[in-house]
């Protein structure tokens, strides 16, 4: 079937089997390999991308469900200049092997947006925002993105440094 | 100077923009075949009939191989036993590859691989440590036994005695990038292998052996791994060999990556183990005699299990000077995945055993475990003088190296060439340090844990917090806290002595830019950046001038695995050696140009100085080129002083020890067993750090990964030998919320007493064992529930914690 996707502000018209995941569409059919396949189970978060500004696990979603959607992958987070989050990940050593980094960055980008829009999390005191980017909120909201090198102190410091400025 | 600077990882910008390429990100070449293994569904037995018609008929399938179709055994083993055929009819573990599918897509290959109709003659598998012991299913005939002093007498004559046992689980590597390889056939039978591997040379060796090629016919390239942790030291052989077989047979490129579940089933893990102990001690907790037995589950093949089990024995003393000890090591062969290297390589198992013993003694005596630890510590090394070690070491390596390592790496900014270092006087009138030896007869001359312990106890406010924890626990309720300290002393060097060598290749171009290649592999540990910093420092230029390139067996041959924490020690020295060769040549040219002596030439601030005059590094490079002098050199290094007899358990297997200590506080819910780490304080010795930012990242990451091993990461097999925890949905590695709520990591400042590159120390593995403090803190919290010793098992899952609480209560 034909699926039209906008990825990083570029339009793609793809002829795909209806069972192709969004991640495989991005990696294998569009050729953007920044998004990673860590577990293919939606458990590790390495495949996280933004769909219309919301973060999702691209490995758990079918490309066919996103006809007409705007997708941002790690390659689309910067237009030459690094985004504040990308720069902060470098400054705070938010990675070692780097394999989870694309997912962490997309997830953190979406997460900061969710906080600013007043979305509650499992550890929020109430269902009514606004919410501060506390350590507990951050850890909870980023718990879907695993880092086996366990760079969590650097990842958290990077996200906080951006979140607090926002 | 570029060393000691906290520069970011060499691929930092590539990582945050998604441009960093891993094997499965390589552009797909036309005609590429994708591979998948057909995996055995039983743990032990023989394949009787294999009907693969449906596999061959499946969409996209190009060709299928069984063991008979291979050009030979295609052994994948890293051990001298050659006991890992790529495909086999004799099944020794559940999941073992029995046929191989090549198809036009990854998905097509995987789907087809499930369509085989196989009948087996099943046999009863040997799964557990006890089953293997009962059947005497083992490697090396019998147990390996090392002895120091008279342990039986020590135990018998001691005022106090106790015995116990500790079971500890294995650990899945869960490198976020699974195993992956690609082989491209080139002209005249040459093969290009691109693999996610810590050991490119072994891949090259095994691929060549499997296909009857020369090693020179196979080139292995490795730019980066998405994590390794030991899991890519030998386990990548299978994929590379499978791809090579297919590429050679079809003339088409072949790519293989394991799906996550397959990866977890197929590949080996950290060795799970049991440590049984009987110990005699005095009223201060000083160990007088110890008999410790390590039962190591190796899995179905030998792989790296012997050196892993050796290293467990080598760390059975942990940080303690034991007058009499017997270490018995059983290397048990079971019908489970073949356990392999994992960060620490047996060290954590050996060390955890000894720390449990000390903890048990302290509980028996009602004393603070820290005091019992200190009472048993090795004696402290004399303090370092300001410039270099007290006692320069004499190279007593039996065989003399062909090429000397770079001479002196004092931290002073002198980089002039030709300042040779004389052999130190070590005659009979030289002062002899007090001899204290490990159970394997190695003198311990660099022990600094007394100082580290004192500093850490103070900075972590241990005494006051211990009182606060006791008060909290006395108040009752469902929650208990625990606080524990643990030290680390970890031996640095490969115990297989010949592996302690490295090569590097450095080119300086006529515009003054530098290209670096070395035998180490980058898996996130920052090795490339460290070696680049070393190279830049030798030339007196900034690190950004050094271009880092993919590890390539065509550039630097005969490399050792990037393992045993040795990457920077070995490759840093080799790169420095190469750089120094070029520097000496450039110094001669510049000296002639500026009319002085080469010995007076200095490389600093991106310029080459002689007296008051100088030329830029670029000019110096151009001058050298125009003088028709080579600006390219290979470098080599071998670690000095090593000699080791593994069967006798005697010698000096390690160049030096890395030290560290941690204090961890935990909170435990006694109703559910749920627990979390509240605070961790670490003081860790990296010598004079090559890059403090990278080192701190290694320490934090190692601790959290170690805490995962000892708390949430539980591997479960069913009664048929099937791994039931084969995905992150059932196997829990630490998430962001699992790290300590308060996490204070400090580098212990000091130089390595041994002559390593800029007096730095290895950092990859040693801090992993700092997490033992988290396990002991949980045990401490369980002990607050009752009078008896809780004898907590690892990992401290809620189930194990609840069992320990019941034991503590005497129920």
Automatic annotation (TrEMBL), chain A:
This is 2Fe-2S iron-sulfur cluster binding domain-containing protein. Residues 1-77 form the 2Fe-2S ferredoxin-type domain. Gene3D superfamilies: 3.10.20.30, [2Fe-2S]-binding domain (1.10.150.120). PANTHER family: OXIDOREDUCTASE, IRON-SULPHUR BINDING SUBUNIT-RELATED-RELATED (PTHR45331). Keywords: 2Fe-2S, Iron, Iron-sulfur, Metal-binding, Oxidoreductase. Pfam families: Fer2, Fer2_2. Signal peptide: none annotated. It comes from the Bacteria. GO terms for molecular function: 2 iron, 2 sulfur cluster binding; metal ion binding; oxidoreductase activity, acting on the aldehyde or oxo group of donors. The keyword Oxidoreductase applies.
UniProtKB/TrEMBL annotation, chain B:
Residues 380-439 are annotated as: Disordered. Its cofactor is FAD; [2Fe-2S] cluster; Mo-molybdopterin cytosine dinucleotide; Mo-molybdopterin. One of its GO terms (molecular function) is xanthine dehydrogenase activity. InterPro entries: Ald_Oxase/Xan_DH_a/b, Ald_Oxase/Xan_DH_a/b_sf, Ald_Oxase/xanthine_DH-like, AldOxase/xan_DH_MoCoBD1, AldOxase/xan_DH_MoCoBD2, AldOxase/xan_DH_Mopterin-bd_sf, Xanthine_DH_Mopterin-bd_su. Its EC number is 1.17.1.4. Residues 17-124 form the Aldehyde oxidase/xanthine dehydrogenase a/b hammerhead domain. It comes from the Bacteria. It is an enzyme of class 1 (oxidoreductase). Residues 383-414 have a biased composition (Basic and acidic residues). The keyword Protein biosynthesis does not apply. Keywords: 2Fe-2S, Iron, Iron-sulfur, Metal-binding, Molybdenum, Oxidoreductase. Belongs to the xanthine dehydrogenase family. PANTHER family: ALDEHYDE OXIDASE 1-RELATED, XANTHINE DEHYDROGENASE. This is Xanthine dehydrogenase molybdopterin binding subunit.
